[in-house]
Design a protein that fits this description.
Number of helices of chain B: 17
Largest interface: A-B, 60 and 64 residues
Distance between the termini of chain A: 63 Å
Largest sheet of chain B: 7 strands, mixed
CATH topology of the largest domain in chain B: Aldehyde Oxidoreductase, domain 4
Structural class of chain A: alpha+beta
Strand content of chain A: 15-25%
Order of helices and strands of chain A: EEHEEEHHHH
Number of helices of chain A: 5
Oligomer: heterodimer
Shape of chain A: globular
CATH class of the largest domain in chain B: Alpha Beta
CATH class of the largest domain in chain A: Alpha Beta
CATH architecture of the largest domain in chain A: Roll
Shape of chain B: globular
CATH topology of the largest domain in chain A: Ubiquitin-like (UB roll)
Largest sheet of chain A: 5 strands, mixed
Number of strands of chain B: 32
Radius of gyration of chain B: 27 Å
Chain lengths: 165, 746
């Protein structure tokens, strides 16, 4: 019995991929094993750690819980797509400056989650950052530095917005 | 002209591997490609003791894409002798051999490996393998086996057994004015690094393998593979450039390494094996410990008796050991001390070193007991500790190479606002919360291990430093670049560190907080050799400004070798190499423990942890708004990455205090919460403000760099400080870790 395959299209970091997938393949496994975009990490494969967080049409999701067939036509951004040209996303630069990671394994998920958070408009306090980032575990314990990095970029973003107004 | 002496040691340099890690370019063990790569998925035993009677693999074999299923009946043959299975850090006993026989020693033990062309096929097929067992009686409960605890007959290398008793601790206890006796329990914990354990074994032709492996020691894994499978060491190359956390769990080769290599050799193809998160709960773990502690003090609050007995779990096949009780005999001055340590065998995998093994639990129990005794004596717990300050290691009768603990007490207390602490527990309320302050002392040995390094300078002014060390998030890549840059006076960007590869100069496993001191000192020595060579050639050059100088009279800075007293007079490093017609200069260096010095001295890092907690009056929820961890660890190479090490230790200590425990269903011998939703590791919302202080501590004896190491010390004492703060807030003494809210409101 051959595996039934379904043709889908994914735009990942601006590049379109036409692929045939089995109905049980997850978005995470397709990114890692088929497209060789291993930046998105597998830490639990159960939607419990957040290491696989990617942006799908701008929203952060756990890619290990998404069956890829259900994302036909989606625009996906992974950690590999956050920088523009050689220029790091401000949050990537802030992560380096604030030492917001140690082993680096949860980092792609923290970054994708954090980038989404910057645009969600839900953060008013540092406690909000902590609460809204709690789906992304970091066993190295870089939480305070991650919060510092996000806070720095948010402050800059808000200052920029105020200046524009 | 630039003459400022730029010191790289002591700079908060950003991680040199930072860009790779924030762009997703750093590749971990499961992320390396190989043509025709096969995927292996392990099938785990569902009983805790007995025999596999039969394995049903037909349905699994019929899944399209399945290549082979290995069981104990058709596995590749490994070495016969026990000693061939012993890795560098193996405890005494019989190392576990996957698929060795039909015997089941613990639940979760691998019973088969399914290998398929795709991950999905292997995973699907693995779910179709079923086993029939002849079940035997098992025990996974330490309390049941506690009475059968035994002193391990063979000592684990590097782990000192408890010292002989001193004085008359029992008599002193009976006579004492103030005394406490209490039992403490610290539940089993799991490392849970974020990266799943993985090995990608690339088959390079007959008996030749390149292995991308999650390990804290590439050469430990290399030696294991060569020895178990009878391969030549030079034909086995293990690479671990990036390791997604480990905390001790990757010190020893784990199951997936054996399986990937065995399948690869049998099938003559490249194979990747990744454990599931659930399976990671059935490899090494921090064993549950029980502590019986009694202590006494005189009228002035001076310790007169310390008795600490601990029992820890181990497996049926190895005597895993830690130094758990020894700390209790050396943290404070006391003439009457008795320490003991026993093991009890359970049907689990062998425990495995986890961040500050031994100290993390022993010091937690002991420092809670110290707090209890201080309270009993009516003395402030910080003052009590100061009164009992140990100026010697009284276990060994040796001096400390340095001990800036008083500065830790002083600065930590100032930052938490210790003067706010009420002597009366449960007295401070703020709205709906009870507020308390607690503290504890921490301690960890500063090791200097044997390590080797090489350095290479090229005429373009670039330096390469190499040693087979690992960076498990610790900052090794970065500090080695800083050490090289500092030695030769080069910009950090011009130094290329090379680690994470078994083909590099010999290194111990990355553990015990010894990497910075050991590999760092070896790199320093290799750079010193290059400096000597450069100096020799520079002196000989025509019109050299250094002709009359001795080596002591020159400095290396800003890419030049120059006179210390007149840095304008010197030569650029490329200039020296070109003039001497050198394509490269190589140096090698070593580090090793100073055995002579060790007869008289011991070296330890020290810390003082201060915590504020807030406990909900009705429902017992504990919040930790602030923790201060003041650390005396000798020289700090990189304050930024060093601080992160302490933050990580403190966070894991908070986990020990409030969250982390493996919950076993003892009827089945299986862990119930074998996932990251139910085994709670601290999350963003649990962690508020953590302040790290490095107090000034000069130590020229501890290591050539003056470095002591930081990987463990952050966790030591943290859980006790939290528990003591909870007592201060509530008056409730919870002696069973983690301190979940049910224990507070009970």
């Amino acid at each position: 019995m051959d595996t039934p395959k379904i043709e889908i299209a994914l735009t990942v970091n601006g590049v379109r991929h036409d692929i045939a997938v089995a109905p049980w393949e997850t978005l995470l496994d397709v990114l890692r094993e088929r497209l060789h975009l291993t930046g998105s990490k597998k830490g639990c494969d159960q939607g419990q750690c957040g290491a696989c967080t990617v942006l799908v049409d701008g929203e952060r999701i756990n890619s290990c819980l998404a069956l890829v067939v259900s994302r036909d036509g989606a625009a996906i951004t992974t950690v590999e797509g956050l920088a523009e040209g050689g220029e790091l996303h401000p949050l990537q630069a802030a992560f380096i400056e604030h030492d917001a990671f140690q082993c680096g394994y949860c980092t792609p998920g923290q970054l994708c989650s954090g980038v989404a958070l910057l645009h969600e408009g839900r953060v008013h306090t540092r406690e909000d950052i902590r609460e809204l980032m709690s789906g992304n575990l970091c066993r190295c314990g870089a939480y305070t530095n991650i919060a510092d990095a996000i806070e720095t970029v948010l402050d800059r973003q808000n200052a920029g917005r105020e200046a524009a107004e | 002209m630039e003459t400022a002496n730029i010191h790289h040691i002591g700079n908060p340099t950003n991680r040199v591997d930072g860009r790779l890690k924030v762009t997703g370019a750093a590749r971990y063990a499961a992320e390396h490609e190989a043509s025709g790569l096969l995927h292996g998925v392990i099938v785990s035993a569902t009983v805790a003791a007995g025999r596999v009677v039969s394995l049903e693999t037909e349905r699994a074999l019929s899944v399209p894409g399945v290549v082979e299923i290995f069981t104990h009946e058709n596995r590749g043959s490994g070495a016969w002798l026990d000693r061939n299975w012993k890795d560098e850090v193996a405890p005494p006993g019989h190392p576990f051999r996957p698929l060795h026989s039909d015997r089941i020693l613990f639940a979760g033990q691998p019973i088969a490996l399914v290998v398929a062309e795709t991950l999905e096929a292997a995973r699907d097929a693995a779910s179709l393998v079923t086993a029939a067992y002849e079940v035997e009686q098992h025990c996974t409960e330490l309390e049941v086996k506690r009475s059968e605890a035994y002193e391990p007959p063979e000592k684990r290398s590097g782990i000192p057994p408890p010292p002989e008793p001193r004085g008359k601790p029992e008599d002193a206890f009976e006579r004492a004015r103030h005394r406490i006796a209490a039992d403490y329990r610290i539940r089993a914990e799991h490392h849970n690094p974020m990266e799943l354990f993985a090995t990608t074994c690339v088959y390079e032709g007959k008996d030749k393998l390149t292995i991308y492996e999650k390990t804290q020691g590439s050469q430990n894994s290399q030696g294991y593979v060569a020895s178990v499978f009878g391969l030549k060491t030079k034909n086995v190359r293990v690479i671990n450039h990036y390791v997604g956390g480990a905390f001790g769990s990757a010190l020893r080769p784990q199951q997936q390494l054996f399986f990937a290599v065995m399948a690869s050799l049998e099938l003559k193809r490249s194979v990747r094996v990744v454990l599931t998160r659930s399976q990671m709960f059935y490899i090494g773990y921090r064993p549950e410990t029980r502590h019986a502690i009694s202590m006494a003090a005189d009228n002035e609050g001076r310790l007169t008796s310390i008795i600490h007995g601990a029992v820890a779990a181990t497996s049926h096949y190895e005597d895993y050991q830690e130094s758990i009780v020894n700390w209790s005999g050396m943290m404070y001055h006391c003439d009457n001390v008795k320490l003991s340590y026993g093991l009890a065998k359970l049907n689990t995998a062998t425990p495995c070193d986890m961040r500050a093994p031994g100290a993390a639990v022993g010091v937690t129990a002991f420092e809670c007991a110290v707090d209890e005794l201080a309270h009993e004596a009516g003395i402030d717990p910080l003052e009590f500790r100061k009164r009992n300050f140990a100026t010697l290691d009284e276990n060994m009768g040796k001096q400390f190479t340095s001990k800036a603990l008083s500065a830790c007490y002083h600065q930590g207390a100032a930052r938490i606002g210790w003067e706010r602490r009420s002597a009366e527990p449960g007295a401070v309320r703020d709205g709906h919360e009870l507020v308390g302050l607690g503290m504890a002392t921490g301690m960890w040995e500063a090791f200097l291990m044997k390590a080797s390094a090489e350095a290479k300078l090229t005429p373009d002014g670039r330096l390469q430093v190499s040693t087979a060390a690992s960076d498990i998030g610790t900052g090794t890549w970065t500090i080695l670049a800083q050490i090289g840059a500092d030695a030769l006076g080069l910009p950090v960007e011009d130094v290329t560190p090379m680690i994470g590869d078994s083909s590099l100069p010999a290194s111990p496993v990355e553990g015990g907080s010894w990497t910075a001191a050991s590999n760092g000192s070896a790199v320093l020595a290799a750079c010193e050799a290059i400096k000597q060579t450069l100096f020799k050639h520079a002196r000989k050059m025509a019109n050299s400004p250094l002709t009359a100088a001795s080596f002591d009279e020159v400095v290396f800075l800003s890419g030049r070798i120059a006179l210390r007293t007149d840095p304008d007079r010197g030569l650029s490093l490329p200039e020296v190499m070109h003039a001497s017609d050198l394509d490269e200069i190589r140096g090698s260096g070593k580090a090793a423990p100073k055995l002579l010095q060790m007869r008289k001295y011991v070296s330890y890092t020290h810390s003082a942890v201060f915590t504020e907690v807030r406990v909900d009056r009705d429902i017992g929820i504990v919040r930790i708004p602030k923790i201060v961890c003041a650390v005396a660890a000798g020289k700090i190479i990189n304050p930024k990455t060093a601080r992160s090490q302490i933050l990580g230790g403190v966070v894991m200590g908070i986990g020990m205090a409030l969250h982390e425990e493996a919950m076993t269903d003892h009827r089945l011998g299986k862990i119930m919460n074998h996932n990251l939703a139910e085994y709670h590791v601290p999350a963003h919302a649990d962690i508020a403000d953590i302040e790290v202080i490095f107090v000034d501590e000069q130590d020229e004896k501890v290591s050539p760099l003056g470095v002591k190491g930081l990987g463990e010390i952050g966790i030591v004492g943290t859980a006790a400080a939290v528990a003591n703060a909870i007592f201060s807030a509530t008056g409730k003494r919870v002696r069973d870790f983690p301190i979940t809210l049910d224990k507070i409101i009970r």
